[in-house]
Design goal:
The protein is an alpha+beta fold. The protein is built from 23 helices and 13 strands.
């Protein structure tokens, strides 16, 4: 408000614009604030003590307040034709109406005067907001040709807001979907990740992505899951895509990105491993041998293609590779079970298992068992520090080498299974070779 008032007190128009106005009118808390003004970039810089020229060539200056995050202040502009599917060839500074007409969707082109509450609406965005519609401004084919990422943004806005996409706008996305490949992997990744973690029904968002034709362009491995049958006795809900969609819809609000990606990709290995096999009792059904390990390798390739952080990739792939092991938890040795419970990814592994069960056979026996086991360690670490270390082995005359890790693991397994007397553990270690 201080930034906006400073502009106005110095003789300029200034309004809140874009997503913050949309969210305020929907009763949602805006994530950030954007201001549009007739002040030119040099003028904006002169009015505020601290600014960042984040996009001065396009009329965008970030004003840094004494407290809080920077606020983008953009000069009204009109854009010339886009040559690369992302940037306009040139811009011209103009008025509020022309600035509204160059924006992406009608619900994102509203201007708000916070002093009076007046809404300046040049594109009938208020009507689309009331109708819960995402509609491209003007010719949707032109809007999407200007910036191909707008196609993914339309899906995200519709999914996160619970809106429908206006038919002509959706038809243009279906026609132009292959053009999304002109957009960088990083920008596609950011939209997909927000879609998965911000949509109240991420499964419906995935279906909309598929209906639009964008899924087979950006995640063909997920699109391939549609129509892949599963044994009805284990998966009465249907094919692999339907199962994944139901799991995404069942996620808790605002899931971690690690969980959302694990849900999306946990069965990505099923299409290439699907076999209609004869079982030992002579019956035939679909089987997916090694789909967890195959899926982990595929997930790594997908996430690397999207330029995802290495730590995130490693965690998601570990969850996917091990997601079938949780079914064996009640039969595990104490040491193996505690290693499972103490894994840094365990909470998301357990939630993935819960969603997996609820979206198929609905049997939660293993989930309940693991919850109970984890609760036993509320007052102590699941994985305590090892009593026996490499220094102990050296003191006993062992020379460092490959055998160290096996001896230490055996000693730690015994510790996890209740042997907490260090002297007793040392006494049963194999003797050092002379």
């Amino acid at each position: 408000m201080r930034i906006l008032e400073t502009l106005r007190q110095n003789g300029h128009e200034a309004f809140f614009v874009g997503g913050c106005v949309r969210d305020l009118l929907l009763g949602r808390k805006p994530k950030d604030w954007d201001i549009a003004t007739d002040a030119l970039p040099d003028r904006i810089e002169s009015l505020f003590p601290k600014t960042i020229a984040i996009g001065k060539a396009f009329g965008i200056i970030a004003v840094v307040p004494a407290e809080g995050a920077p606020v983008e202040v953009a000069t009204y502009r009109a854009d010339s034709p886009y040559a690369d599917g992302r940037h306009p060839g040139a811009i011209a500074f103009t008025n509020a109406r022309e600035d509204a007409l160059r924006r992406d969707f009608t619900v994102n082109a509203l201007f708000l005067d916070p002093a009076t509450g007046e809404i300046r609406d040049f594109v009938h965005g208020r009507a689309d907001l009331d109708a819960h519609l995402i509609r491209a401004i003007g010719d949707p084919s032109v809007r999407f040709a200007e910036d191909h990422l707008r196609m993914l943004r339309a899906i995200r806005f519709a999914s996160t807001l619970g809106f429908a996409i206006e038919p002509a706008t959706f038809s243009a996305i279906q026609t132009l979907a292959p053009q999304i490949h002109r957009i960088s992997a990083e920008r596609i990744r950011d939209e997909l990740f927000r879609l998965l973690t911000e949509s109240p029904h991420a499964g419906e968002a995935l279906q909309l992505l598929r209906d639009s034709g964008l899924l087979k362009e950006v995640l063909p491995e997920i699109d391939a899951m549609a129509g892949v049958e599963q044994p009805p006795e284990f998966h009465p809900e249907g094919d692999v895509f339907t199962h994944t969609r139901l799991m995404l819809d069942a996620m808790p609000p605002h899931p971690s990105l690690r969980l959302a990606l694990s849900v999306l990709l946990h069965d990505v290995g099923k299409p290439p491993t699907a076999q209609f096999a004869t079982m030992p009792d002579g019956t035939q059904r679909w089987r997916f041998e090694c789909h967890a390990s195959v899926g982990a390798d595929m997930a790594r390739a997908i996430l690397e293609r999207l330029r995802s952080p290495n730590a995130l990739i490693d965690d998601v792939c570990a969850i996917i590779a091990g997601h079938m092991r949780l079914a064996e938890a009640p039969k595990m040795r104490e040491s193996k079970l505690r290693r499972l419970l103490g894994a840094p990814t365990f909470d998301d592994e357990l939630e993935l298992h819960r969603l997996d069960c609820l979206s198929s056979h609905s049997i939660l026996d293993v989930y309940d068992f693991l919850k109970a086991e984890k609760s036993k360690f509320a007052a102590e670490p699941v994985l305590p520090p090892p009593l026996v270390t490499g220094r102990d082995l050296i003191a006993l005359g062992h020379k460092p080498g490959p055998h160290f890790s096996k001896i230490l693991q055996d000693a730690y397994d015994r510790q996890l299974e209740g042997q907490t007397d260090k002297a007793a553990l040392l006494a049963i270690l194999p003797a050092a070779k002379t």
